Target: Cyclin-like domain-containing protein
Amino acid sequence: MADSSFMVSPFSVTLETDDEYIGSLLRRESCFLHPKLDSSSMESARPDVVRWIMKMKAFFGLCSRTAYVALSYFDHFTHRTIDLTKGKRWKIQLLSVACLSLAVKMEERRGLSLTEFQTENYWFDGKVVQRMELLVLSTLEWRMSRVTPFSYLNHCSSKAMGWKAIELIFENIEAMNLVAYRASSIAAASILAAQDNERLTQKSLKSKMSSVPWMRSLNSDEVFSCYIMMIQESQEKK
Model:
C-alpha cells in the first residue's frame, strides 16, 4: 500500500503558480474585454467556421494555439462588426481565411501562401484576403498577441490533466464564443471539468477555486458558467 503522505489530491496537481507571470496574463486579458453585444446573428454560421479551422489545422499540421487564436480573431471581429458579415456567406468564409492566415503568421514558425487557405465553396485571390486581413487588424486595433487558456495550462504540473483540459476545450469550442469567456476562466473551467470527480455545484466550484492562488481573483460566476457549458456539451455528445 502506498504511503499516504506522498499521495497528492487530484486538484492539487493543476497549475504551478508564478504570481508575476499569471498577474501579467490577467492584466493582458483585460485589454480584450468589450461591452456585451448581440452576436446571435453569427450563431448559425460559427459551427461551420470552427469545423473549417479545425480541418485546416489537421491538414497543415498547425498547433492547437493557432486554431484557437484564429477563432478568437473571428469571434472578436464579429463581436464588433456584426452587420459586416450578416447574411453574407462568402464574407464569413473570407473572414475565416483571413483570421486563420493572421493566426499562422503570429503563431507558426513556417508561413503558408494565402492561396493555400481555400474554402470548399469559394476561391479568394491573395490580394482580397490581404484586404480582409487589414480590416481585421484595424478592427482589432492591431492587438494580435492573444492570451489563451494554453498560457495557463502550460504550467500544468500534471501533463495528463493538461491534455485532458485541452481536449475539453476543443470538444466544446463550437459552443464557446471566445468573447463571452476570458482565457483564464476557460482554463480554470477546463481543469475543473477534466477531473473525474462528481459534478460541482457553484459553491463547491468556488471552494475549489479558492484553493488555487491564481484562481482566487477570477470571476467565479463566469468560470461556473463555462464549466457548466463544458459539462453539458460533453454529456450531450456521449
